[in-house]
Specification:
By secondary structure, the chain is of the alpha+beta class. 52% of the residues lie in helices and 22% in strands. The chain has a 3-stranded antiparallel β-sheet.
Length: 164
């Protein structure tokens, strides 16, 4: 009978030690979660901000390309600055597009420079080159001290007008 009593006591003490160890392991896991969760949250927010900035940059570049493609259709659209600005705005409906500037330059098809106004070439045809610049302001959701607030993103597209 005495042997059974000692065994039961030993079993109770072992069970108590196991319960204590389980509680300690749960507390340790909770502390580890509390330390790593803020780091993971900051990484996630940084990835979201980076994705937003990349998306805005792509939209600004695509808007410039759409405007240049519109203007490069023929000589009428090459002179339609308002139409190119509208094409840029329509291409980027999700962002607030800033200024869209269009510039026209001319070059001779043999690579030499043009002369006079209107431009002429002595031994080649005149080619019209359209350059469209767009910009938009990106404001991050999270402001980090020392990095400033808003960023200006730029887009540029250059197209040759083939039917001008």
């Amino acid at each position: 009978m005495q042997t059974t009593l000692i065994t039961r006591r030993g079993t109770r003490q072992a069970a108590q030690r196991r319960r204590t160890r389980i509680v300690e392991e749960r507390a340790q896991a909770l502390v580890e979660l509390g330390l790593t969760l803020p780091v993971l949250a900051v990484l996630l927010l940084g990835a979201v901000e980076f994705a937003r900035a990349a998306y805005t940059g792509i939209e600004v570049s695509n808007a410039a390309k759409a405007a240049a493609q519109y203007g490069a259709q023929n000589s009428t659209t090459a002179a339609d600055t308002t139409g190119m600005q509208t094409a840029a705005t329509n291409e980027a409906p999700d962002i607030s597009l800033g200024t869209t500037t269009v510039s026209t330059s001319y070059i001779c098809s043999d690579g030499s420079s043009t002369t006079g106004t209107p431009p002429t070439c002595s031994s080649a045809t005149v080619e019209t080159i359209l350059t469209v610049n767009t910009q938009a302001t990106f404001t991050p959701l999270i402001h980090i001290p020392g990095l400033g607030g808003a960023f200006t993103l730029h887009g540029q597209a250059i197209e040759k007008c083939l039917q001008c």
